[in-house]
Design goal:
The chain is of the alpha+beta class. The chain has 27 helices and 25 strands. Helix 1 (3-22) crosses helix 2, helix 2 packs antiparallel against helix 23 (685-719) and helix 11 runs parallel beside helix 23. The protein is elongated and about 105 Å long.
């Protein structure tokens, strides 16, 4: 590029700067609109990059797969339970049978677990058993200890720096001994850096896997024989160019070879269960099994927010086009003079593009500053841990560098082409007139803006209506004023004494224990048979179960619709069953009353159905109410949770009494509790955060769209100044002129609504499919969205229309 080229570029930007300063108001609106649009894009971009980056910090991420397990009904093939974990004996067998597996590692979640060092005791939330091959598969930064030996010997444990500091302060933690469950002694063999925030799993305490081989820890059955505990995360490392489909095709034969047949050789193992491979980098966004290590994201959400970012940026670009076009009449003489003195159309186009690129660059710099300022707010709103460092990657910075050029050209190309087409003779005579085709194009742009706005209004309304429905829908039981705690095996022999002490306080109404509590997932299921005539026949149904004591129903106010509840007065109840109404249907019983007294077997238990309970929502609204059996377990070891029903009259006193009783019976175990209704709120926390963010960005999009409408109305009114003056001279009222100027724009809103309605319905109907219990999308939501959009448009247009209508007609007609 020669000196003349550099001089021309400098001249373009010099003139651009002068024009920006000359038309301050429109320049400010252009800059403000693009800044807000780009800020939203930067925030959403940071979120999307973070979501897409999960587990990619592992150098071998593309070669790591997780093995998942599906249970299905052998009669119909219908899936009944989809797990991200498998049974422990699978690990060695898989590595032995398939030579393409380079390495295999297993993790077993043992959270929460009470750990004690001297006087310090904490309930640790992220305690995992991990084998010594973990470091062959995952990238873990070991700070102290040996990568090869730290997890090899039994009763050894590795800690993160934070956990080690919590117990040992500034002392060297190596070889110190922690007590788990006040029974198992664990020697610290290593310190490691916490797994990154963008990992799908975050162990903070890792106990050597070989510790589980001890019968006092895992039971007499041992790891190699226990096929019933499908709770082990199992990962494999494979070679490059590995085809997972080829390995998956061999899994059915592998299952038939190693598993026992189900039900008197009627079904092969591969008919009632299957194994699959799941790529490590797909877990966070694409895995939705019935049991996950942590709450995952959702690829749908990434697409939704990507669309919102593009919509907002598109609306901002459209604004620039409209506002620049509105300013065109003010610059008509400038363009005419420049053409008269020899400027080519290409040079004028370059001039206007240089202005739009300059504004885009200013907007981008401001957007990056604002992004840095509001990032903490977004983190609080979204529950994420985003930082500007996410954007400081070479590829991302390169893309950010080109964004102002792309946005500038996209925003400025139409105004540049439009204004460079002015004919000098007509311009200098004041005969600039915009043809109908140009107005139609602007109308298309504003129609697109308001179509997007209406879609966002409808989407926001549907999301909030669904959330409100989930929070207000009857659950079929009473969730209020229930305190829940983890059950501890130390209470096995003294639970009745513990319960009686709690009930001695007038603020406590009831106490029960169960294997699971509402808000948890129903994962436990076994084969069932029901009496049909003279024999027990396998039930063609998948039925979940929960172990409860005799107080569970009264604690949760679950209703008995037929028969009776469990009672300590009947010794046979330890072999009896309570079933819900959904189970009555799948067992093909004639009625709730007909079910009472029927012989039934479930797993190894045989007994009678003694009662039918109402269907209640044990799980979230994402899941349908499933057939459910309640049983009184043969051993208290099956219990996992304690539920305490309190009056609610004096919460602090009730909690204080529960805590003091807990400490008296379990002095070595920290007291921790939650309220059940808070657990339910957590079930929908993700949707609530999504709704809030959705609302914020929808409001921003609508606000930016108003700026665009302001630009188009200003442009149109500028073109009709003389017409308005003549109408006023002839006696037209202000209201009639405002109505005249507004109706054309309101037509655009109506057209936008017609376009937006089917798109919004399709998108939100698809979103609602994730909920088993969902609202119907009412017609009034669409009507209300259109009315809101029309009101916003009318208000925006009226600001310009009233100003034009009350202006002195003499000023607009004096040149005639």
């Amino acid at each position: 590029m020669g000196y003349r080229g550099l001089f021309m570029i400098r001249n373009y930007f010099k003139i651009a700067l002068r024009n920006l300063m000359k038309y301050k108001f429109i320049s400010f609106i252009n800059l403000f609109g693009l800044t807000v649009g780009l800020t939203c894009c930067m925030l959403i971009l940071a979120y999307i990059i973070n979501e897409l980056s999960f587990d990619k910090y592992n150098k071998k991420a593309d070669n790591i797969y997780r093995i998942t397990r599906l249970f299905k009904n052998p009669e119909t093939g219908a899936p009944s339970l989809n797990l991200s974990t498998i049974a422990p004996p699978f690990g060695p067998l898989l590595q032995n049978d398939f030579k393409e597996i380079k390495s295999l590692t297993r993790l077993y979640d043992n959270s929460p677990a009470p750990l004690r060092y001297e006087e310090k005791t904490f309930n640790e939330p992220n305690v995992f058993y991990a084998d010594e091959h973990l470091f062959d598969v995952f990238d873990v930064d070991v700070l102290k200890g040996s990568r090869q030996k730290a997890l090899t010997g039994p009763f050894s444990v590795m800690l993160t720096e934070e956990v080690a500091k919590k117990y040992f302060g500034n002392e060297d933690p190596m070889n110190k001994v922690l007590k788990m469950n006040n029974q198992i002694s664990l020697k610290v063999s290593g310190i490691f850096k916490p797994f990154p925030s963008n990992a799908h799993i975050h162990p903070a305490v890792m106990i050597s896997f070989n510790t589980l081989e001890d019968s006092t820890v895992y039971g007499a059955k041992g790891l190699r024989e226990n096929w019933g505990n499908n709770s082990f995360f199992t990962y494999i490392l494979v070679p490059d160019n590995f085809d997972p489909k080829k390995l998956e095709a061999q899994f059915p034969a592998f299952l038939d070879r190693h598993l026992k047949e189900e039900g008197a050789t009627k079904f092969k193992p591969s008919q009632w269960t299957s194994l699959s491979l799941q790529k490590l980098t797909d877990i966070h966004l694409r895995s939705h099994t019935d049991y996950e290590a942590e709450e995952n994201g959702d690829i749908k959400r990434v697409w939704i927010f990507s669309a919102i970012a593009l919509f907002i940026l598109l609306i901002a670009c459209i604004n620039y086009m409209n506002l620049s076009s509105a300013r065109s009449v003010l610059r008509a003489k400038e363009i005419g003079i420049r053409k008269t003195v020899g400027a080519s159309r290409k040079e004028i186009i370059y001039q206007f593009l240089s202005e739009s690129v300059m504004i885009s660059w200013l907007a981008m710099l401001l957007a990056l500053l604002i992004t840095w300022l509001v990032m903490p707010w977004l983190n609080k709103l979204s529950g994420q841990q985003l930082s500007m460092n996410i954007l400081y990657q070479t590829k991302i910075l390169t893309a950010i560098f080109f964004i102002p050029f792309v946005v500038g050209i996209l925003s400025g190309i139409y105004p540049a082409l439009f204004m460079s087409s002015f004919q000098p003779v007509k311009v200098l005579k004041g005969l600039v007139k915009v043809g109908g085709g140009n107005i139609s194009f602007r109308q298309i742009l504003v129609t697109a803006q308001f179509a997007i706005s209406i879609i966002l209004i409808i989407s926001t309304a549907v999301v909030f209506k669904q959330l409100n429905y989930m929070q207000r829908k009857s659950l079929g039981f009473d969730r209020e004023h229930i305190v829940t705690m983890n059950y501890n095996a130390g209470l096995n022999d003294k639970f009745e004494s513990f319960r009686n002490e709690l009930l001695a306080n007038s603020n406590i109404k009831n106490v029960s224990r169960s294997s699971r509590i509402p808000t948890g997932r129903l994962l436990d299921a076994m084969g069932s048979k029901i009496n049909r005539g003279d024999s027990l026949v396998p039930a063609n149904a998948d039925i979940k179960f929960v172990s409860t004591d005799q107080e569970f129903l009264s604690t949760y106010a679950v209703k008995i619709v037929a028969g009776r509840e469990f009672s300590k007065n009947f010794s046979t109840d330890t072999s009896g069953f309570l079933i819900n109404e959904a189970a009555v249907k799948v067992l093909e019983l004639k009625s709730n009353e007909d079910a009472i007294g029927k012989d039934m077997s479930y797993g190894s238990r045989t007994g009678k159905i003694i009662g039918v309970i109402n269907d209640f929502h044990f799980e979230s609204m994402h899941q349908k109410i499933v057939p459910l059996i309640l049983v009184v377990p043969s051993s208290p070891d099956f219990y996992g949770r304690i539920s305490v029903k309190i009056t609610g009259a004096n919460l602090p006193t009730a909690i204080s009494h529960i805590e003091s009783s807990w400490k008296r019976f379990l002095p070595e175990t920290p007291f921790e509790y939650t309220f059940l209704d808070e657990n339910f709120e957590k079930l929908y926390a993700s949707e609530e955060r999504q709704a809030t963010i959705f609302t914020v960005f929808a409001c921003i999009a609508i606000f930016i769209a108003c700026l665009g409408l302001f630009g188009l109305s200003a442009f149109a009114i500028t073109q009709r100044v003389k017409e308005i003056g003549i109408r006023k001279v002839l006696g037209a009222s202000v209201s009639s002129i405002v109505s005249l100027l507004s109706k054309d724009f309101l037509k655009l809103v109506v057209i936008a609504a017609v376009i937006a309605f089917p798109i919004a319905w399709y998108a939100m109907n698809n979103w609602l499919q994730d909920f088993a219990y969902r609202i119907n999308i009412s017609w009034w939501i669409f009507f209300t969205a259109a009315v809101i959009a029309a009101f916003i448009a009318l208000f925006t247009i009226s600001l310009q229309a009233i100003k034009a209508a009350v202006a002195n007609p003499v000023k607009s007609l004096r040149s005639e």
